[in-house]
Amino acid sequence: MSLQPFRTRRILLIFSMLAVAATIFYLSAVFGEAKSAPGLLPNANSKAITHNSANDTASPLAQLALQKVLNDASPIFGYDDDDSSKSATSTWMKAYPDDTLLVHMNIPGTHDAATWNYSKATEQRLSPITALNGIPETDPDNFRCHDKSLHAMLNDGIRAFDLRYAHDVTNTTLVFWHGVGLQSQTATLDDLLFAYYNWLENHPSETLFLSFQFEGNSIPNSANDLSVQTLLHAALTSSAAKHYFIQTDTLSSTTLGSARGKITLLRRFDLDLLPASQTADLPGLHFSPNDWTVNGANITLSPSSDSSVAHIQDYYSPQTPSGASISTNIASKINATLAFFAYAASSSTSEDNSLWWSFASSTKTGDKPPSTPRMQALGNGTQLTPDGGVNDRLKEVFLRGDFKGKRLGIVMFDFYEQPDGLLESFLGLNPPRPA
């Protein structure tokens, strides 16, 4: 495995922090969210998420600027206060040869990844802010899809992230939402990107997929307006972004070796209010919301300039009768997921360079009784779901060997760490080929 030098990019990253820190200082001072949020302050044993290279010659001021941005990102990214860095899957891509095509790999991901810290306490703490937009309190269980931070996800082996953004309540910056659930008022999209860049500096054998989707359609007084599009474009075309995002709009021929230490952008958004000449420099694969079939069990799109195909399963709301049992809703989702896996496996050959992308996540919160993301993924802990949820069924299938040796592509989970061993069973389906 050949890893390119990171020192020049590291210096750019650190000094870029100085500019970013200045721009977000005001919001940090006003809201102080990272400092006041329960459960987010690092305890006495917590470690700062910083670069540990012995060759790092950055000045103390640059290091402090980096730490400030990482602290500001912490309500979404989290802190290095767990043992996930010791996980056997923290650098699992290191075992794969450089010439492995990304489209031939199985990539574990997380749906609505930023929701891990969304609780009743979070909602109540942010209620004076969300009240400005007339957003009422809701049940956080309808919006929460994870229990582990993004930092822990990375160290556990997650390599694809579904991130939903919109304006903050003041219409000044881009922050993260799930429906009307504001995840943080102060952790911005820019902050989060730098946290990902920093993690890659510490894990240069790995590569990431970041999917960004505008979430504002359900938020009062929110729209994908010129301001939102301008802010997003600036974040994704900055000097730092150009170093860390793979600067191509194709994926079919991208190898792991060329992608190590970098990010593939999955653009589930349109920048239709910006001049075409301005958006021509955007990297990544474009999945226009206008082409993405809502609740589609088998979507076919052509997101790149080389006309290569992407196959997608995003059947997130089980089409079951109103009032259906939780077990019926789980069965509907698992059936759609396994059918798509079988389709992907049937095309799992060295000649097929399509992108396969599926969501193991689901919810039906508008029903009575509701099926929350947690219930769908894990069951509801009663005799009504004796076999657990979608995650439990998938682990059984993976261990049974139905898809052994097959490429299933990117799979987005909710609560991926449960049941224990789910992630390992998925990664074990398509191990690295012998050297």
Shape: globular
Q: What is the string of SSEs from the N terminus onward?
A: HHHEHHEEEHEHHHEHEEEHEHHEH
Query: What does the main sheet amount to?
Result: 11 strands, mixed
Q: What is the residue-mean pLDDT, rounded to a whole number? A: 88
CATH topology name of the largest domain: TIM Barrel
N-end to C-end Cα span: 11 Å
> Can you give the helix content as a percent range?
25-40%
Number of domains: 2
CATH class of the largest domain: Alpha Beta
List unreliable stretches of 5+ residues: 2-8, 18-46, 51-55
Main structural class? alpha/beta
CA radius of gyration: 21 Å
Determine the strand fraction and express it as a percent band: 5-15%
Architecture of the largest domain in CATH? Alpha-Beta Barrel
Number of helices: 14
Number of strands: 11
Blueprint (SSEs and pairs):
Blueprint: H1 7-31, H2 33-36, H3 60-77, E1 107-110, H4 120-130, H5 150-156, E2 160-167, E3 174-178, E4 181-182, H6 189-202, E5 208-214, H7 226-236, H8 239-244, H9 256-259, E6 263-268, H10 276-279, E7 285-286, E8 299-301, E9 310-313, H11 326-346, E10 355-359, H12 373-378, H13 390-400, E11 410-413, H14 422-427
Parallel strand pairs: 1-2, 1-11, 2-5, 5-6, 6-7, 9-10, 10-11
Antiparallel strand pairs: 2-3, 3-4, 8-9
Helix pairs in contact: 1-3, 1-6, 3-6
Q: Can you describe what's shown?
A:
- It is a single chain.
- With 435 residues, the chain is α/β, with parallel strands linked by helices.
- It folds into 2 domains: 1-47 and 59-285, TIM Barrel (Alpha-Beta Barrel); 291-435, Phosphatidylinositol (PI) phosphodiesterase (TIM Barrel).
- Helices cover 34% and strands 11% of the residues.
- The protein has 14 helices and 11 strands.
- The chain has helices at 7-31, 33-36, 60-77, 120-130, 150-156, 189-202, 226-236, 239-244, 256-259, 276-279, 326-346, 373-378, 390-400, 422-427, and strands at residues 107-110, 160-167, 174-178, 181-182, 208-214, 263-268, 285-286, 299-301, 310-313, 355-359, 410-413.
- Strands 1, 2, 3, 4, 5, 6, 7, 8, 9, 10 and 11 form an 11-stranded mixed sheet that branches.
- α1 (7-31) crosses α3 (60-77), α1 packs antiparallel against α6 and α3 crosses α6.
- The radius of gyration is 21 Å and the shape is globular.
- Residues 2-8, 18-46 and 51-55 have low confidence and may be disordered.
